[in-house]
Amino acid sequence: MAWPGHRWLFHVTELITPNRCWVCLAGEAEGGPIRHGLCFSCWKEVASDPHHRCRRCAATIGAFTEGDQACPTCRAKDLHLDSTVRLGPYEGLLRDVILMMKTPMGEGLAEQMGHLLAEVKGEELRLKSLHLVTCVPMYWYRRWQRGHNQADRLARCLSQSLHLPYVPHLLRRRYGAAQEVQPSASARWQNVRQAFSLRAGANLKGQRILVVDDVMTTGATLSAIAQCLRRAGAEEVHAAILARA
User: How much is the CA Rg of the chain, to the nearest whole Å?
Assistant: First the structure.
């Protein structure tokens, strides 16, 4: 596993020997053809989801659970989402890739994962007849610290692959502690209350919108955003994520 401190090694070796895997640094000779920045072995592990999932919140469900209806995880919640598409659960190599994306040198990897998400889930997303793609915004100070917003890079590349306009309609208007450090599910929901707003002039009446993020845990962030978009007239709000915790 190549952790953030080894990214400099990746960029140096990429200059000498192009087409190396972003994750394990294997070249085509060792890992096979490079696809969306990943060798065949890493691509297969990241892109394969062996589990059944809830169509509404993307949580892993049992084989005999009805996936088109609210599952036990989201049945008692008003997520304001029509559906959620995921690559897989937040574990294993997919989790490692997402953690790498969150580092200052992870912007290029996030772009590759956006194209991979489009390849694997593009057909499912096209059936929703979407009008535009947007993303979960990051507060300006945190973006300055990291150097990029991985959700923004995912959404831009996903929109290109789907031939849909990317419109960053949303703003995060206050700084809050990161969702992953919240002590409980209720704290996560409280942390994002009234955290988002729309940019001036946004007209979403009758629009079917895809919101992109890297990880969904309790659904609090995406629910808050979906509610904001619906108040502005959005007809449907769908989500695309890399992983569901």
Answer: 18
Q: Count of CB atoms within 10 A of residue 137's CB?
A: 21
CB 175 within 8 A of CB 139: yes
Q: In this structure, are 163 and 212 located in the same domain?
A: yes
Query: What would you measure as the largest C-alpha separation in the chain, in angstroms?
Result: 54
The total number of structural domains that make up the chain: 2
* Successive 10-residue mean pLDDT values, the chain, 245 residues: 45 55 86 89 94 94 74 85 97 96 90 96 97 96 91 97 96 66 57 83 93 95 95 97 97
User: DSSP E strands: which ranges in the chain?
Assistant: 52-53, 60-61, 83-89, 132-135, 170-172, 196-198, 208-216, 236-244
Domain CATH number, residue 226: 3.40.50.2020
Residue that is written with structure tokens 């993303």 in the block: 135
Same domain as 11, residue 60: no
- Name the token pair of 176: 């809050």
Domain carrying residue 24: 1-48
Q: Are residues 89 and 20 part of one domain?
A: no
Give the distance from CA 201 to its chain's centroid: 26
